[in-house]
């Protein structure tokens, strides 16, 4: 949801360590970040802030749980998007979430998954709600590097 | 006959008198022994009350370079001989460094060991460090803090609230080493980062 960008960010964790020299905040242990409808969970999260106050968060999976995020989508009352991966990089300035290695992303209406994507790398732009999937854990796709799987449920027009 | 009894009586009298005199002298002698004895055997009772105090003071610790490293001031500092410690009312500690802004710590009360290498602060502890080109304005509050001035370390296991710039972080337990720029909250961390200023 676009409105999320202007909401305060709330972070909960077991521990936090801040490096005054590099101005990096590291939260570890059951980390939960919430901002508006956006909820991100991870074992470890590194937050840096640039001079303009934009926050860049990198979430790491850990203790058997992937890093995950869930956010409401505009254009409908109960439209959600969920994603999980080994590592998620979230850029508050561009409002883009990048999911690296074993990335999965699902779009839901209420509890029903409308479509689902898997790949080594997924980038999701919250503003345009557009996501791109690559088969290598980087921004590019290399032939033969792995399959991208996408399941797109048929839209039944009756609901429109 | 009467004469002999008189002299006997007088003799008795003298004997009694002698005995009484001996008792009197003896008791003096005994008192003296007791008094002298008491002084040597029982140690001087360690004074638990303070033996001196200083008012409106400012204690400045100098580094080898002669530069001031930190100040400790307060309205009143009382010295306790029993464990050679100080108690300071309304302490104000200023940590000085050329690498970062002056850190000011205030509290209701502080207790420090003899060479002020460890100072425990109690009640309304506030740390304030103004912003600098490389770091934000930092304010921290807690109800107890241990400061090791010579090592630039501050720590507590009590709940703390940290305001760094516009971000507010709370947690239980804190460790900060200003020399290395390290700062940790050890449990139950909760952070609120307001949305960035509207562009």
Provide the fold topology.
The complex is a heterodimer of chains A (160) and B (199).
Chain A: E1 9-13, E2 15-19, E3 24-35, E4 38-49, E5 55-60, E6 67-72, E7 79-85, E8 87-91, E9 96-109, E10 112-125, E11 130-134, E12 149-152
Antiparallel strand pairs in A: 1-3, 2-3, 3-4, 4-5, 4-6, 5-8, 6-7, 7-9, 8-9, 9-10, 10-11, 10-12
Chain B: H1 2-41, E1 52-62, E2 68-80, E3 85-89, E4 92-95, E5 103-106, E6 109-112, E7 119-129, E8 138-148, E9 153-164, E10 167-177, E11 182-193
Antiparallel strand pairs in B: 1-2, 2-3, 2-4, 3-6, 4-5, 5-7, 6-7, 7-8, 8-9, 9-10, 10-11
Number of strands of chain B: 11
Largest pleated sheet of chain B: 6 strands, antiparallel, barrel
Order of strands in the sheet with most strands of chain B: 2-3-6-7-5-4
Helix content of chain A: under 10%
Query: How large is the radius of gyration of chain A?
Result: 16 Å
Report the order of strands and helices of chain A: EEEEEEEEEEEE
Q: Work out the helicity level of chain B.
A: 10-25%
Widest sheet: strand ordering of chain A: 4-5-8-9-7-6
Outline of the structure:
Chain B: The chain crosses the membrane at residues 12-31. Chain A is an all-beta fold and 160 residues long.
What does this structure look like?
The complex is a heterodimer of chains A (160) and B (199). Chain A is mainly β and 160 residues long. Chain A contains no helices and 12 strands. Chain A has strands at residues 9-13, 15-19, 24-35, 38-49, 55-60, 67-72, 79-85, 87-91, 96-109, 112-125, 130-134, 149-152. In chain A, strand 8 and strand 9 form a beta hairpin. Chain B is rod-shaped, with a radius of gyration of 34 Å. Chain B has one helix spanning 2-41; strands at 52-62, 68-80, 85-89, 92-95, 103-106, 109-112, 119-129, 138-148, 153-164, 167-177, 182-193. Chain B folds into 2 domains: 1-43; 52-192, lipopolysaccharide transport protein A fold (Sandwich). The longest helix of chain B is centred in the N-terminal third of the chain and has 40 residues, at 2-41. In chain B, 20% of the residues lie in helices and 49% in strands. Chain B has 199 residues and is of the alpha+beta class. In chain B, strand 2 and strand 3 form a beta hairpin. The interface between A and B is medium-sized, with 27 and 27 residues. Chain B: This is Lipopolysaccharide export system protein LptC. Chain B: The chain crosses the membrane at residues 12-31.
């Amino acid at each position: 949801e676009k409105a999320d960008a202007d909401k305060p960010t709330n972070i909960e964790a077991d521990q936090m360590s801040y490096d005054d020299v590099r101005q990096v905040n590291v939260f570890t242990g059951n980390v939960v970040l919430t901002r508006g409808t956006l909820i991100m969970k991870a074992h470890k999260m590194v937050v840096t802030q640039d001079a303009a106050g934009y926050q860049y968060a990198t979430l790491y999976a850990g203790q058997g749980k992937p890093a995950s995020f869930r956010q409401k989508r505009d254009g409908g009352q109960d439209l959600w998007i969920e994603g999980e991966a080994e590592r998620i990089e979230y850029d508050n300035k561009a409002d883009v979430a990048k999911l690296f290695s074993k990335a999965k992303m699902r779009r839901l209406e209420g509890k029903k998954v409308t479509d689902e994507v898997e790949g080594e790398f997924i980038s999701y732009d919250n503003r345009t709600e557009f996501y791109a999937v690559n088969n290598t854990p980087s921004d590019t796709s290399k032939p033969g590097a792995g399959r991208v799987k996408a399941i797109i449920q048929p839209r039944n027009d009756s609901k429109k | 006959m009467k004469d002999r009894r008189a002299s006997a009586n007088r003799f008795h009298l003298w004997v009694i008198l002698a005995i009484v005199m001996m008792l009197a002298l003896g008791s003096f002698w005994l008192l003296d022994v007791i008094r002298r004895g008491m002084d040597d055997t029982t140690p001087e009772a360690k004074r638990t009350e303070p033996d001196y105090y200083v008012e409106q003071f400012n204690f400045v610790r100098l580094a080898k370079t002669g530069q001031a490293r930190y100040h400790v001031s307060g309205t009143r500092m009382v010295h306790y001989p029993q464990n050679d410690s100080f108690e300071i009312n309304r302490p104000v500690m200023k940590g000085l460094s050329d690498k970062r802004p002056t850190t000011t710590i205030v509290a209701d009360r502080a207790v420090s060991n003899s060479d002020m290498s460890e100072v425990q602060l109690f009640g309304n502890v506030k740390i304030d460090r103004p912003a600098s080109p490389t770091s934000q304005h930092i304010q921290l509050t807690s109800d107890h803090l241990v400061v090791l001035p010579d090592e630039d370390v501050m720590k507590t296991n009590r709940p703390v609230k940290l305001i760094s710039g516009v971000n507010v972080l709370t947690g239980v337990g804190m460790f900060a080493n200003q020399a290395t720029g390290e700062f940790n909250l050890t449990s139950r961390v909760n952070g609120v980062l307001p949305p960035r200023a509207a562009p």
